[in-house]
Model the fold of this input.
Amino acid sequence: MAKKKLPRLPSDRSEFSSKTCSWFKTDMSMLGQTPIPESADQGELARQIREMGEWFHNLNLRGISTAPNHFLGDFPNIKWKKICGAIPARLEGASVLDIGCNGGFYSIEFKRRGADYVLGIDIDEKYLNQARFAARTLNLDIDFRKCSVYELDSIPGQFDYVVFMGVFYHLRYPLLGLDLAVKKVGGRLIFQTMLRGTEETKSWAEDYAFWRKDIFLDPTFPAMYFIERKYSGDPTNWWIPNCSAAESILRSAGLKVVSHPEEETWICELKPSRTDRRYVVDQEFAGELIPDEGEPHGGSSDAVE
Done:
């Protein structure tokens, strides 16, 4: 992959009009803070980890696990082991945007591979504090800041790698979140979502007649499940796609799949054939996504069966 110019970094907060997005003075955000010395007492390090609250990312911080009893096991390392082979071992010159960075696991792994600039964003202060602490403990130069996925346009530039893992199904407006993430892709998007329903997929016609209903009863038809209250005790599990829907959504966002390293993860690039090289979210907001001229809104009665 050709080396791309690193995103321009703001000199101060004034470049961001959003009340949600704010730069932290840590690493690039935490410059000026002293890294935790290698000789630090393990007991003291363990105490600091505990004081930061419950961790969702199980990180190995100098031999101490941050979430040793995670219900998914050694998460997210168990997922990373299946994915990492599809990502170059050396990423010198690369820029990375980690959306929904949580405790910083993926940001850390990309920085360990030599990425020049890694920006991790999240809306949860607790997770951001954990991520900053982890990066400082490991003496890694990673930038973390608070930002909503819906305000990604406030971040300047594009990135060689955009990590969008474990975010999609937590969004009430998941397609908008993905479409905004796609605008930040200067190279590849790494997308992961929880899946439910069948994992089987098959090809579908481009169009169907309005009265054709049987297709919706096929378990392989692209579909998402809406969670009204909670799933797995989490009220932010809003929409969970089946496998066919996940792949269809990626294609409709203007992406092509280049790798599918594990059952819930796809690595994508932008389709070079995007209409006018415009993003679907911009076409949507401009009111340009309309039925074909001369076609009834309900679909043709003789559409493909």
Residues 90-285 form a domain with the Rossmann fold fold (CATH 3.40.50.150).
